[in-house]
Design a protein that fits this description.
The chain has 376 residues and is α/β, with parallel strands linked by helices. It folds into 2 domains: 271 residues, 3-Layer(aba) Sandwich (Carbamate kinase), CATH 3.40.1160; 93 residues, PUA domain (Archaeosine Trna-guanine Transglycosylase, Chain: A, domain 4), CATH 2.30.130. 41% of the residues lie in helices and 18% in strands. It has 16 helices and 15 strands.
């Protein structure tokens, strides 16, 4: 059994991200034939006891075709309009396609706020698990019509990585229009070589991804490598495949060498710390002295007020903030026990003096170690 087959053997829940160019194109809209081919492969996986979540791009391209737009919308209202028109068409085709195989589907539209709020995160998680129990295929997309920031900055590679953590999937598969990660852009360099197995996302790997250019849609190769990095610290591998090749899912999961497998060797985060690291946006910054930075990074300590030199931003207790060392480098992220104004008041003092300064003491720690993630 090769390395790839061994990893996939126990993968019983997958998140499959489908890129725009796999199922849609400018001027032609959605490619119904390709969606049907993918559905047959997914049905095969389901018949073999594998639960599947689809994160599908393509709504905006589908909407462009319906609205008669020749170029990708540049204004926010037009992007949102195209997403609204295209999303209903995208789901209609998925529903009809899987209906032919007697499989129901469910549309789930998410925003970053849905995953940043812990209660909504857990509610979403319970919804997915209930859908699995009823043999329903969840089809996920960003809620583009209401989430301006998601359209402007987001991409479905990032969303797929967060959903992988959300549903406790054992494998993330990203379907794109190239055969995997190459040493350079294979569309420009005939000598480019496929990297079949990646254990570490080095600076060289990151540069290779950037140099590979962008694909149609909002994400490029760089965003796919970042997605692999996000799920890698949760202990989940990522398989990057050419989704334009019929049967690629079945062949790859059967162990046939294909694409690029990211199986990162790094310290693994539990679900809660992964949520802190990637699902919540930082509301501010805390500047540390040398001793505090050392205690956090290398001694497994909580953050105490004595090691804080300064505070930036407006945030409340329970919000996520980023911790910076004296050189200005981001070294940690965590949930604070005090608001910014109060942290500014107690910075540099001993824990025994917190109550005298604030009039109360909620905790000795500004950030408890259980709510702190070290950033590499």
């Amino acid at each position: 059994m090769n390395k790839q087959a061994g990893i996939f053997k126990n993968s019983k829940r997958l998140v499959i991200k489908i890129g725009s160019r796999i199922i849609a194109s400018k001027g032609s809209g959605l490619n119904k034939e390709r969606i049907e081919q993918l559905a047959e492969e997914i049905v095969h996986l389901k018949e073999n006891g594998i639960e599947v979540v689809l994160v599908s791009s393509g709504a905006i391209l589908a909407g462009m075709e319906k609205l008669g737009l020749k170029e990708r919308p540049k204004t926010m209202p037009l992007k949102q309009a195209a997403a609204a028109v295209g999303q209903s068409q995208l789901m209609w085709i998925y529903e009809k396609t899987f209906e032919a195989h007697h499989l129901p589907v469910a549309q789930i539209l998410l925003t970053s706020e849905d995953l940043a709020n812990r209660k909504r995160f857990l509610n979403s998680r319970n919804t997915f698990f209930t859908l699995f129990e009823h043999n329903v295929i969840p089809i996920v997309n960003e809620n583009d019509t209401v989430s301006i920031e998601e359209i402007k900055f987001g991409d479905n590679d990032h969303l797929a990585a967060l959903v992988t953590n959300l549903v406790d999937a054992q494998l993330l598969i990203i379907l794109t229009d190239v055969d995997g990660l190459f040493t350079s852009d294979p569309r420009k360099d005939p000598d480019a070589k496929l990297l079949p197995y990646v254990e570490e996302i080095s600076a060289e790997i990151e540069k290779t991804a950037i140099d590979s250019g962008t694909l149609e849609g909002t994400g490029g190769m760089s965003s796919k490598v970042k997605a692999a990095q996000k799920v890698g610290v949760y202990g989940v591998p990522t398989l990057l495949l050419n989704g334009t090749r019929p049967g690629i899912l079945i062949r790859a999961l059967a162990g046939e060498p294909a694409g690029t497998l990211f199986n990162l060797k790094s310290e693994k985060l539990n679900s809660r710390k992964h949520w802190i690291a990637f699902s919540i946006k930082s509301k501010g910054e805390i500047y540390l002295d040398k001793g505090a930075a050392e205690a956090l990074q290398h001694k497994g300590k909580s953050l105490l007020p004595s090691g804080i030199r300064g505070v930036k931003g407006t945030f409340m207790a329970g919000d996520a903030v980023t911790c910076l060392n004296p050189d200005g480098k981001e070294i940690a992220k965590g949930l604070v026990n005090y608001p910014a104004k109060e942290i500014d008041q107690i910075k540099g003092i001993k824990t025994s003096d917190i109550e005298a300064v604030l009039g109360y003491k909620f905790s000795d720690e500004v950030i408890h170690r259980n709510n702190l993630v070290i950033l590499e």
